[in-house]
Design a protein that fits this description.
The protein is built from five helices and eight strands, in the order βαββαβαβββαβα. With about 180 residues, the chain is α+β, with helices and mostly antiparallel strands. It has a four-stranded antiparallel beta sheet, with helices on both faces. It has a four-stranded antiparallel beta sheet with strand order 6-7-5-8. The two termini are about 15 Å apart. Pfam families: DUF1697 (PF08002).
């Protein structure tokens, strides 16, 4: 049995694409997953399963959500080992920062560094970003809502079909905890 976190992109934001977490748990249990739990209303579910791999589990959940709720949702699925490695590899001093200052954008596939090569990093200081293993770490000292770098990064055209979804540092750490063996 492997425990995974499903990261749903763009649900329950601004009153649109409403997906009640109780209904998501029921849906996922109906797909045969066990130990289904959700975290917050912004689209994190933790579950255990014996079958499939992360990409196939993400595709299955995305199809099931569209069938049940009538709208498509991008889903990224990651296991505990990956989530823990991302948290441990953070290039910024997470313990010294407020959670609102640090974010991780998870990608569904590797992203080539040259996709971000044209960014003039000095123009956004003190904000910074670093690429990791299928993720991007963003340091925004004044929070995501005021981040000019986050706005610029989100405006990048996605010509690769790679799904991206961001979480603040509190959620990053909580997902590591929730997917840990015995949690």
């Amino acid at each position: 049995m492997t425990t995974y976190a499903a990261l749903l992109r763009g649900i329950n934001v601004g009153g649109s694409r409403k997906l009640p977490m109780a209904e998501l748990r029921t849906l996922m249990t109906g797909l045969g997953h066990t130990g289904v739990r959700t975290h917050l209303q912004s689209g994190q579910a933790v579950f255990t399963t014996e079958r499939g791999d992360a990409p196939s589990l993400a595709a299955e959940l995305s199809r099931a959500i569209e069938g049940r709720f009538g709208f498509g949702v991008d889903v990224i699925v990651r296991d505990h080992a990956y989530l823990k490695a991302v948290a441990e590899a953070c290039p910024f001093p997470a313990a010294d920062l407020q959670a609102r200052q640090l974010h991780v954008t998870y990608f569904s596939a590797p992203v080539a560094p040259d996709r971000f090569a044209e960014f003039d990093s000095a123009a956004y200081l003190p904000e910074e970003f670093r690429l990791g293993d299928r993720c991007l770490y963003l340091y925004a000292p004044h929070g995501l809502g005021r981040s000019k770098l986050a706005q610029a990064l989100s405006r990048r055209p996605n010509t690769t079909g790679v799904i991206a979804t961001s979480r603040n540092w509190n959620t990053v750490v909580k997902l590591v905890e929730l997917t840990a063996p015995g949690a």
